[in-house]
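User: Here's a chain of 411 residues. Predict its fold as tokens.
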Amino acid sequence: MFLKNLQLKNFRNYNNINLNFNKNTIIIAGDNGQGKTNLLESIYYISSGKPHRTNIQEEIINWESDYAVIRAFFINDDMDSKEDGHLIELELRKDGTFKIKVDGAHYSRKSDFISVLPSVIFSPDDLRIIKSGPSNRRDFLDGILERSDMGREFFVLKTNYQKVLNQRNSLLKSMSGDAGLKNNLTLDTWNESLVNYGHKIIEYRMGLLKDFKKNFADFLNLFFPGLRAEIKYILSWNRKISAKNNFFNLNFKNGNGNYLISEDLMAEEAVFEGDSASFSIRDKFITKLKENLKRELIYKTTIIGPHRDDFKILIDGKDIKSFGSQGQQRIAVICLKFCEINILKEKRKTNPVLLLDDVLSELDNEKKRLLIEIIKNSKFQTFITTANPDIFKDLDVSGTEKFFISHNKIS
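Assistant: Prediction complete.
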């Protein structure tokens, strides 16, 4: 897909702008705080149905207005195509309501238009995929699956799993001691439902990472030749609590006096699950639920399942989160984004738009050159923001389109 025209009204700091794009690579420069990231966020919103930096719709609407409008006109694959193209229009209101039109037709759900214009965004905040906790890595995988060709199915699957998980946790809170272990027929019912939904989520995620692996290693080796890169999915039952942090020594309790379990503690001694398909995820899930019931009765929460899974990036056998340099971590996230865009291209049968927010600022000159080369050799329309236009001085950015933002105006 190629974005030809973008109109924003009352979106973040933009009162009213109308931009036309005619190149594969668009550079957006301007001082910090002028709205470069907001511009990319509007494109991402029209693609995904949600902003990149907040879950609150009201926050993306100009504080002086009650509503915001985003309009995007785009065409398929070829910038010089003579086809009529497609128009997505969103009206967002501070009360949380919205109106959607695609090519003039009204829709009631965001799921009806997301991925019509697929996109992938990188921002400095995405370093949390590596640096922060497991939930950020799970969200990364699930976000891709929800925007793939089976997005609606995966969304429903996760919603149903969460409902069952909440019910099971409520039951665990009501059970106590040996009596709870003896009277667990209701628990067996919830276990069955949890496993029915949960094992599919695990298998979808593992399949996605399997598709990632070779591309990720190839991309990383462009930037760091000779490094051995791996991505491994970690099942919740293979995440061990170290002896010093076992539940007999934990002092963390919730308001009801129940022990809480920290995901960071669970990750103290991670054991990686291999790629072998010789075991059944479903059968293993059921077995591990039974084995961990006594611990769950102490913690009063479900500690086994895809809501506790993780994945690790290994560089020469070492976890990049703990042993990787800042540069390696940043490049690794960029490589994940390149894998994401290739996956979406394959699944959606079209070229997504690539949005790179402040991607060059902490890279050395050789890494910048390699990144620009990858972008220029791809068929993806790419938007790159920077607070320092001089950063491109020694780079080949011929054939690009350049915009400058200052005081909410774009030239």
